[in-house]
Structure formats: C-alpha cells, structure tokens
Amino acid sequence: MALASSVKVVLGSIAFAIFWVLAVFPAVPFLPVGRTAGSLLGGMLMVIFQVITADQAYAAIDLQILGLLFGTMVVSVYLERADMFKYLGKLLSWKSRGAKDLICRVCLISAISSAFFTNDTSCVVLTEFVLKIARQHNLPPHPFLLALASSANIGSAATPIGNPQNLVIAIQSKISFGNFLIGILPAMIMGVIVNALLLLCMYWKLLSIEKDEEDVAVEVIAEEEMNSHHFSPATMSRFTSLNSQEWNSRLEVMAVQSSPGMSVPMGHVENLRNRSIPSENEIQGVPSGTLESARTSNSSKEAANDVSSQVKEETIPSKRVASLDRLRDVLSVLTSEGKDDLTTRWKKILWKSGVYLVTIGMLIALLLGLNMSWTAITAALALVVLDFRDARPSLEKVSYSLLVFFCGMFITVEGFNKTGIPSTLWDFMEPYSKIDRVRGIAILAVVILVMSNLASNVPTVLLLGARVAASAAAVSAVDEKKAWLILAWVSTVAGNLSLLGSAANLIVCEQARRAPQLGYTLSFWSHLKFGVPSTLIVTAIGLTLIR
C-alpha cells in the first residue's frame, strides 16, 4: 500500500502519537485523561482529520473480539465469587517445603490460571495471596511478585483467552482453540520452567532462609490468627451432641439453681439464726411485760414466716417450669438456625459446583472448535441464570473501560493503517523477516519485541498481524499458521521486558502497593534487572518449540 497524501500522513501520525502517549503513559502531565479516553480521542481525531470516514470507523470495531472479551470477563467474575482463586491461593502454601518450593508453585499456578482465566484476572486476585505467603515465611516479596507477573504473561500465551492480543489473533487468523493450544503449549511449558530456574538462580541467597526462622514466623502468624478469632464453631460441637434426656436433667438442675428461693448462702442463714437467739443475761434483764409483748410479737412473726415459706415453696415449681420452657425455646431456636445454616451451606456448594461445570463446559466447547465469542457469551449468560438473582452487582465488576479502550484502539489503528506508514515500513522489513529461515524468524521476533514495548502488544498485533500472515502465506499455509503463533508468543512474552510492558505487570505493582498491612513497591529497575534476561531467553527457547 502506497503512502496517502502528505496531509493525511501528518494528521494521522499526530492522532496515533496522541493515542500512543496516553496508552503508554496514562498519567502524562499535560493531558492526564488515562488510556480509555486516550484511545477514544485518537479514534475521534482520525475521523475529524478525515483520515477515515465515520462508516469506516464503525466497521473497524471488531464485535467478535469485544464479545469474547466480555464473556471471559463475566465468567472470571463468577469464578472469583465461587472462590476459585481463593482455592488456588491456598494451593500456594499447602504442604510447602520451603522458599524455593513456593516460588516454583507461584510460577506454575500463575501460568495455569492465566491460560484459562486471563493474566490480568489472575494477577488481580493472586497478588495479595503471594504477599501473605512471603510474610509468613519471612521472605522478601519481590522475587514472588516477579514470579507471579512473568509467569502470568508466559502462561497466558498458550490459549486464545489468555490475554487480549491472543483474542485478536484467534479471531483474525481463524485458528481453533485446540490448534492454538497445541501449537504454543510446548513453548509455554518450557518457558515457565526456564523462568522459574532464572528466578531461583538470581535470588538463591534471598530464598535460602534458615528453616527455624521460617517455623518461628509461621508459628507467630498462626498464633496471631488464632487470637484474632474469638468464636469458633468447634466450641458448639458438645452443645449440639447431647441427647434429649441429658438435656432435660440439665435444664432442671439449671432451673433449680436459678430460682430465687435457693440463692441465699447457708452461712448467711446460720448467722441470722444466731442473731435471733438472745443470751440468758439479756432475758433476765428484761421486765415481764416486755417479755410478754415480745413473745406475742415473736409468735406473730413465726406465723408470718410460715405463710411466706409456704408461698415460696408453692412458687418454686412454677418458676422452675417457666425457666425450663424458656431454655427449651432457646434450644429450639438454635436447632432451627443450625438447620438453616446447613441448608445455606449445601446451596452454596451446589452453586459453586454449577459454576465450575459451566466453565468446564465452555472450555470443552472451545476445544471442539465452536465459535469462541458466542461460546463465552453463552457461558456468561448461563452463570447469570444459574445465580438466580439480580446480575447487576456481578456485571458491574466487568471492565467496561477496557471494552471502550478496544473500540477506540480499533478505530485509531485502522486510521493509522490508512496513512500507509505501517505498510511502507513492513515492505522494507519483509525481505529480512521470512519465517522459512532461522535468521528471518529472529529478525521478525526482534521487530515484534521492540514494537510491543514501544506501541504496546495489542496495537502491535493489529498493525503487524495481517502483514506477517500474508508474507508467510506466500510460502505455505503451514507457515501462515506458524507466523500467527509466533506473533502471539513474542508479543505476549515481550510484556516481561519492563514494568510498563504489559498490564499484568502494572496490576501486580499496584495491587502490591495498595495491599493493606502488606504493602510493597516493586520498582522499575528491580523488574528490569530480571525482565531483560528472562524475556530474551524465554522468547528464544519458545521460538524453537512453536509448531
């Protein structure tokens, strides 16, 4: 494609430059509007500058990609509600054998979860688990955070639903889910292993902490967690295991003890009796009239005491029965609440099982080659119906700003393609980037690697995808498929090069910084120190294994 008019080239380049700056640096001082607004601004400028028409802008929006992205995000929301990622977090520390074992687990679980639930989602929910584990074992967090982010990017390369650029490649190339997985899976497995080995080599000393220090740290954390829970259902186990006869006898004893007539101590009664018996000298010193009147008053008091004691004896059984009835009412309420809790628990277990079955069904349908976009949307709606409640709270967790960002990016990239600049640059590079030669694959990989870090991976795929595939198709149909898979592998792993290389890196960095009581800042240079060798080595090894 030849270059467009100089006016379109200049104006289209300005619009794309604005989009690129705001996409890579969303908080740029002179226009801190963010990535989503930046993509819309770039698309709007393409139409206003008449680089493309309004109809071409609407046609540039790929609804299949948006549908697949929306469906996978909804499924991820329901999986998070079903505690899927909580269980994955527990696997990180289950029967752990030390720091080196932990970092290998982080790499493995992060890669697998990212392949099927997108790398961004995995990084959002697993970052805090990783920080807690590092704290419990008295270890520095940054090797584990690097393991999480880098393995999430590598693992997400294996499937079309692992990351946004793979969604674009799967839709444009029409490669089935199964063929995509088979083509990149060997490279992904070897990449995760090599990435874990590099982490162990670089941070061996930091991970070689003494075992006794680990045990002390774990015991202190466990003791703090036990002290923070003042109630445990285990304390109610004996309460609910008594039979009815034992309950009746205990309730009767409790009722007798709680009655007012039995609440006076015996020592106090004996003291009152001693006070009521006067000494012999006191009696002799009292006149006869006074003694007579005293006898009369004493006899009347004794009669009154007899009456009151009879009344008390009559009221004791009635009060005992009343307190017994009250305690039986309390017991019946506790029993009904226990039944309700049991019913609620079983309903939750059945709902979680349904969510997992729908997700497995979605993956099977994708492997069978059904339309990926409608399969994801169908699974999302099945989960909404299964939940049987207002779906608004769950749908509000979907990142609609990401969907809008994609709309603006589609328009902006389409406008930049119309200028002819990408085609001209590719015409210059194409003779050196033939994938039927090792040298050509290496040069193509370097171009993708550089562009993915300069222009971000999704715009790179949109700009290069069709051109790379057309060049490979001129060689053979097999090479065309291989070209798409190379583009998917390199553009994804390229995100590990620097902290700004992928959204997953930024998510881990922000989640770690904002984690309550566990906050940690992953610096740009600490990431770059590991990211450069990891990206180059993993990319090179993976290229030899892609089919």
Automatic annotation (TrEMBL):
Cellular-component GO terms for this entry: plasma membrane
GO BP of this protein: transmembrane transport
Residue ranges constituting the Citrate transporter-like domain according to the UniProt record: 27-494
Membrane topology reported for the UniProt record: Multi-pass membrane protein
Superkingdom assignment: Eukaryota
Keyword Membrane set for record: yes
Compartments, record wording: Cell membrane
Keyword annotations from UniProtKB, A to Z: Cell membrane, Membrane, Transmembrane, Transmembrane helix, Transport
Record CDD domains: YbiR_permease
Protein name: Citrate transporter-like domain-containing protein
Record carries keyword Ligase: no
Transmembrane regions listed in the UniProt entry: 6-25, 32-52, 58-79, 180-204, 355-386, 398-417, 438-455, 485-508, 528-546
Region (Disordered): 277-314
Short name of one Pfam family: CitMHS
Natural source organism: Quercus rubra (Northern red oak)
Polar residues compositional bias, start-end: 290-310
Chief location: membrane
